[in-house]
Structures are given as C-alpha cells and as structure tokens.
C-alpha cells in the first residue's frame, strides 16, 4: 500500500497583513486603519513590523514565534490585564506613544520617527506629557482606571507646574529657555486635555488655545519667523500642523479669530504634516486656506453683526466648487492601486471642501438648515464618506463628520455618519469622539422629537378641520439662532480635527 504524504499546510497570509489576520492565517485586504475582516469580526486591527506586547517590559513581538494554546493564551491575557502599574514604565510609555498614539495623529497612520522623539527623553516637561498621554489612552483600552488615572494625574500636574515655572522665569534667564520645546509641550497638553481625555464640564481647550497663541506671540522670532527651517524637522512639522488645525477648527466652531493667516498653510508644502507630505499646490492646503478666510469672516460677522459682501461669498464658493467631487463619482472609478490612492485623497479633500461650503452657507450666508444647497453639500459629503470607507484617511474626517452630522436630516445619512464615528472610535480611542457622538445623538433626538410634534399638530388640524394658516415648514432652529449658538459651547470643550 502506497503512503501518500499530506501536502504541507499553505500559509495564506500576505506581506503587510494586520496582526489579527496573521494569527488566523487568512488573507488580509490590507485596508487601513481597519481591514474589512477585522471590522466584520469586531477585532482590533493593528499593522506594523512589530507588535507591542505588554509584559515586564514593552518588547517587540515578531511574527512567527511559537503559538500558545488557547488555555495558555487566556492565562496570559488575564496576567497582562492584571499587571501592576510599575511595569508600565517610562520606556514603555515612550514606545506606546510612538507606536500607538502618534500614528493616530496622522492621516496615513505612520508613527513619528523614534530618533526625532529622543528630544522628549531629555526634557522633563515633554517626558511628563508623553507619560500622561500614554496612561490616559492606555486606560481606555485596558480599563485599569484606578492605577493609570493616578499615574496620569501625577504626570499631568508635574507637566503643568514645569510649564508654569518656565513661563514665569526672570527675563535674564530666558537664554536657557527652549521655545520650541515649550510650544511642543503646550500642544501635547492640548492633545491630552482636548482630544484624548477631554472634560465635558470644563473649557480646557480654550485655555490651551490661548496658551499656545501666547507662546507663539512671546517667542515669535524663535518659532514662527523662520518657519521654513522649523518645519523641516518632522516632529516640528507634525506638531505645528496639529496646532494650526486645532486652532482653525476651534475658531470655526467658537467664532474666535484664527491665529494663522490664510497663506500660512502653504508653508506646509513638502513638509511632514499630520495629513502627509504634499506639494504646495495641493488642493488640501488651498481648502485649509479658504477655511481660514471663512473663519476670519465668521469672527467679523459674530463680533460686528455685519455679513460679508455677496461677491466675496460667491467667489469663495466658486473656489470650493472645483474641489468637490460630483455625487457618486468615486464609486464609478475602476480601482487600480495608483488611481485608487489618487481618488482616496480626492474624496478626503472633497469632504473638507463640502464642510467649508456648509459653513459658508450656514454661518455667513445665514441659510436655513433645510436649504437645498445645505442639504446638497451634506449629501455629497456622505457620498465622499461612503467612498472613503475602510480607507486610511477616514479617521481624519472628524470635523467634517461633526458639521455634516449636525445638518443632515436623512435617517440613512445619519446611520452612515454614526457608523463612521463608531469605526473611528474603535481605532482611535479618543475621548473627543465620544463627545461628538453624544452631541450628534442629542441633536438628532431633538430633531426627531420636534418633527413628531409638528406631525401631530398637522394631523390635529386636518382631523378637527380648523380653518387656520398652514403650519410653517419644519425648522428646529429659531429665526435668530446663529451658527455659534449651535457650536460654540461644544467647541470650547474639545478639539476636533
């Protein structure tokens, strides 16, 4: 009898697979930030050459090590979840920040360069802030609240005292001050209190925006006057672009004047900003410049109650229209790797352009929520969102999600926006997303309740045959309600970008 040897089991993984697909020996679709299999199964989707494994120290866990049995894996999981806090030490917090937090602050989910992060190990202020950010973010995922909360608070208070003492130094000692490090610390503190762990009962983002602006004013010569040189450093470019975006979205929501001029955005051409390295002529920089112009006009309108000229608004709308993709165009394109990447970026830019259009119509033109142009911009944004689903850039559409989500009146569109918010939270684990979801759900609930009241009123009129004027078209907001009545309170509690 001839014995036929069984063929060796074929490994079905592909290069660059996420760790969940590697473990289950299945093909990965390679979508980022979450592949389709992990989204469907509700798994944590992580990419990278190394996988963080929490033990006595944080060490890289290379794929291909001996697989544990199911029972052994359960024991290991329980052991990891019950680790005492001291094992989450400064070195592991730095690696956690670099491998877990920093990729979530970029559009392409690329970690900040480790060599560029060495500045923090020599600076007590930055080291404390990175420790606090890592504890706050890790706390959300592991639920080790008592231990991690205490550690985070100690690091945060230490950083605040350090920053305060530096800013209060005698002018004669300012030669020893590193303005770039102070500004970095201010931005990281803003990310901690306004993005990772915002407090809905306080206005910390307002304090951090004012603090960052004051630092830039005080050390303008050292930080901003030589912008071209400053932005060549990867970390400097990342941090400056993050602050500029937080400052812009804060200004759009609250009606304050943005710190940077519209032309400043073009300084990020060919620099490693959070949205990536793009040319100076890239549409995204043009759109951010237009948004800054709109924020300036919004501040003027809020404070002086004088709207911009019609010609100025029409010119801005024409500039925005060239970046807005026609409805459903993205789905009709045959996806090659190069074409798909181009279309993905086009959808990303179109989403921000539609957001700018909504702001222009609602805040400056004073259009009603039911205006066809407003609802058209919302619909086109949702089309962009559907086209960008399972895409690397989706988690960087939080500001457009907030604005379009507030203005949509369609249940299906709300479901798409809700699903996108939940997907973003499942990847980012940022507290700001929880506030966005709560804000939108509350607004949608009020809208549904108000619409129900309108329908009851209409049905009563028909039933009782009252000879009355027709009930006015449903409008949730009063005639004197402004953009800032709707968004200012929320904008002072969290950063959205």
UniProtKB/TrEMBL annotation:
Kindly state one GO CC term assigned in the UniProt record. nucleus
Q: Tell me, what's a Pfam family for it? A: Fungal_trans_2
Write one Gene Ontology MF term.
transcription cis-regulatory region binding
Where would I find the Zn(2)-C6 fungal-type domain in this sequence? 17-47
Please give the name of this protein. Answer: Zn(2)-C6 fungal-type domain-containing protein
What lineage does UniProt assign to this protein's organism? Eukaryota, Fungi, Dikarya, Ascomycota, Saccharomycotina
Kindly give the CDD domains that the UniProt entry links to this protein.
GAL4
UniProt organism field:
Kuraishia capsulata CBS 1993
State the PANTHER family in the record: ACRIFLAVINE SENSITIVITY CONTROL PROTEIN ACR-2, TRANSCRIPTIONAL ACTIVATOR PROTEIN UGA3
Keyword field = Nucleus
Query: Which InterPro entries does the entry link to?
Result: Fun_TF (IPR021858), Zn2-C6_fun-type_DNA-bd_sf (IPR036864), Zn2Cys6_DnaBD (IPR001138)
Q: Main site of residence?
A: nucleus
Q: Name one GO biological process term.
A: positive regulation of transcription by RNA polymerase II
Q: Where in the cell is it found?
A: Nucleus
SUPFAM superfamilies this protein is in? Answer: Zn2/Cys6 DNA-binding domain
